[in-house]
Design a protein that fits this description.
It is found in: Cell membrane. By secondary structure, the protein is an all-alpha fold. Helices cover about 70% and strands about 0% of the residues. Bound molecules: protoporphyrin IX containing FE.
Length: about 350
C-alpha cells in the first residue's frame, strides 16, 4: 500500500515539476517576444529616475565612477566581464541543472517501477551483526540533514524565482529568499566540519580494491542479467565507495567555493566570485544528483539497508548477501549475535 502510494506520488511529483519549469520558461519567452526588448527591472527604473538617463547609461556601459572605497573594482557598478558568468549561470547551468535533478528523480522512479526493490533472496535468520555505532549514525544523520537542507535552500536560491515567486506574495517571497540565503550562509560551514569528520572516520573502509571492479562490472547485482547475483563486497561495496569519494571531493569543492563566496573580505575580485559561483553550482549539482540515487537505495531500493543506519544492526542474511567478505570476517570474530540466547 505504502509502496503503491509512493509510486504514484513520485511519478506525479516529477510530472508536476517538469510542467512547472516548462510553463515558466514559456511564459518568460512570450513576455520578451511581445515587447521585443528585455523589460527594465524595478531597480533599473528607480536608478534612472534618481541618477538621470545619461549617468545610468555610463553605469550600464561599465564605466568607472568615483567612490571613497579603496576596494578592488568598487568604482565599477556594472561589470561587463561578468556577463560571461551571468550567461553561463542563467542560460546554461540553471536549465541544465534542473534537467539533471529532475532526470535523476525520473530515473530512480523508473528504476523503482521497472526494476523494483532488491529483496533478500533468503529468509532472515534473526541473528544480527553490529554495523554502525551510535556515533556513526549520529554523524550520518547530521550530515544527511545538513546536506539536504543546504540542497533545498540552494535550489530555492537558483530556481525559486521560476517556480515559487510567481505563485506567492512579494512579501512572502522576500522572507523566503532572505531566509534561504542566511540559512545557506551559516549552515554551509557546519557541512564542511561534518565532511572532515566523515573523511577521518570512514576513509579506511572506502579504499578501492581489486574486488570492487568485479562488483562494478556486475552492476552490483542490482540490474540486468546479474540481478540478484550478489557480487562479493567488503564492509562497503564499490557503489558506496564511489559515493563516499564523490561526497569528499565534490564536498570539498563546494565548501571551498562556498567560503570564497561567504567571506568576500580576502581581496577576491568579481572574477574570483564568478568562478567560485560556477564551481559551487556544478559541485553541488553533482552531489544532489548522486545522493538522489543514494537516498533511493537507502529508503526504497534495497530491503534491509536502512535498518543498519537506524538501529545500528543488520540481519545475518542481509550481511551475507550484500557484504559477504565482511560477514565472513565478523563470523570468524564471533560477532554474529543471537538475540534469543
Ligand atoms: C534520507 C536520506 C538518506 C538515507 C535514507 C540514507 C541511508 C543510508 C544507509 C542505509 C546507509 C548505510 C549503507 C550500509 O550500511 O551499507 C548510508 C550510508 C552512508 N550515507 Fe546515507 N542516507 C541518506 C542521506 C545521506 C546524505 C544526504 C549523505 C551525504 C551528504 C549520506 C552519506 C552517507 C555516507 C557517506 C554513507 C557511508 C557509505 C559507506 O561508505 O559505506 N547519506 N546511508
Amino acid at each position: 500500500m505504502f509502496m503503491k502510494s509512493f509510486k504514484t506520488f513520485t511519478v506525479s511529483l516529477v510530472t508536476v515539476m517538469m510542467l512547472c519549469l516548462s510553463f515558466t520558461a514559456l511564459a518568460n519567452n512570450n513576455d520578451n517576444k511581445q515587447t521585443g526588448v528585455a523589460p527594465a527591472t524595478t531597480a533599473e527604473k528607480e536608478m534612472t529616475r534618481l541618477a538621470g538617463d545619461e549617468f545610468y547609461q555610463k553605469v550600464q556601459d561599465g564605466q568607472k565612477g568615483y567612490t571613497t572605497s579603496q576596494s578592488m573594482e568598487h568604482d565599477v557598478l556594472v561589470s561587463h566581464p561578468s556577463e560571461a558568468w551571468y550567461i553561463l549561470k542563467e542560460k546554461w547551468m540553471s536549465p541544465l541543472g534542473a534537467i539533471a535533478v529532475l532526470g535523476s528523480l525520473a530515473m530512480v522512479s523508473l528504476a523503482y517501477i521497472i526494476v523494483g526493490p532488491l529483496k533478500l533472496s533468503k529468509p532472515r535468520t534473526g541473528r544480527t551483526i553490529k554495523r554502525w555505532s551510535r556515533v556513526d549514525r549520529a554523524l550520518h544523520w547530521s550530515m544527511a540533514f545538513t546536506f539536504l537542507s543546504l540542497a533545498f535552500s540552494g535550489m530555492t536560491l537558483v530556481w525559486g524565482k521560476h517556480f515559487l515567486k510567481p505563485i506567492i506574495s512579494t512579501d512572502a517571497w522576500g522572507m523566503i529568499i532572505y531566509g534561504a540565503k542566511q540559512y545557506h550562509n551559516y549552515i554551509g560551514p557546519i557541512f564542511f566540519i561534518l565532511l572532515v569528520v566523515v573523511l577521518i572516520k570512514w576513509w579506511r573502509k572506502s579504499i578501492f580494491k581489486k574486488i570492487d571492479l568485479d562488483w562494478c562490472l556486475k552492476l552490483g547485482g542490482m540490474v540486468g542479467k546479474h540481478k540478484g547475483s550478489h557480487p562479493s563486497a567488503e564492509f562497503s561495496n564499490a557503489g558506496e565507495k564511489i559515493i563516499f569519494w564523490m561526497l569528499i571531493f565534490m564536498g570539498i569543492v563546494a565548501a571551498i567555493s562556498g567560503f570564497i563566496l561567504d567571506f568576500p573580505i580576502f581581496g577576491q575580485g568579481r572574477r574570483d566570485m564568478d568562478v567560485s559561483n560556477l564551481a559551487h553550482m556544478i559541485s553541488a549539482l553533482i552531489l544532489i544528483c548522486g545522493f538522489i540515487f543514494h537516498i533511493y537505495i537507502g529508503l526504497f531500493g534495497m530491503e534491509g539497508a536502512l535498518e543498519g543506519m537506524v538501529k545500528g544492526e543488520v540481519d545475518e542474511t542481509w550481511a551475507k548477501e550484500h557484504h559477504d567478505l565482511w560477514y565472513e570476517e565478523m563470523k570468524a570474530q564471533g560477532k554474529v549475535e543471537d538475540p534469543k540466547v
